[in-house]
Amino acid sequence: MKRILITGANSYIGTSFERWVEQWPDKYSVDTVDMKDGSWKEKDFSEYDVVFHVAGIAHIKETPENKDLYYKVNCDLAVEVAKAFKVVTEETKSKRHFIFLSSMSVYGINTGVITKAKQPSPISNYGKSKLQAEGLIKELESENFIISILRPPMVYGNGCKGNYVALSKLAKNLPVFPEFENQRSMIHIDNLNEFVRLLLEDGTSGLFFPQNKEYVKTSEMVKAIAMANNKTSHTTRIFNPLLKLACKNVGIVKKAFGSLIYEHDMSGNYEYCVCEFEESILKTEK
Question: Where is the NAD-dependent epimerase/dehydratase domain (predicted)?
Answer without folding.
Answer: 4-202
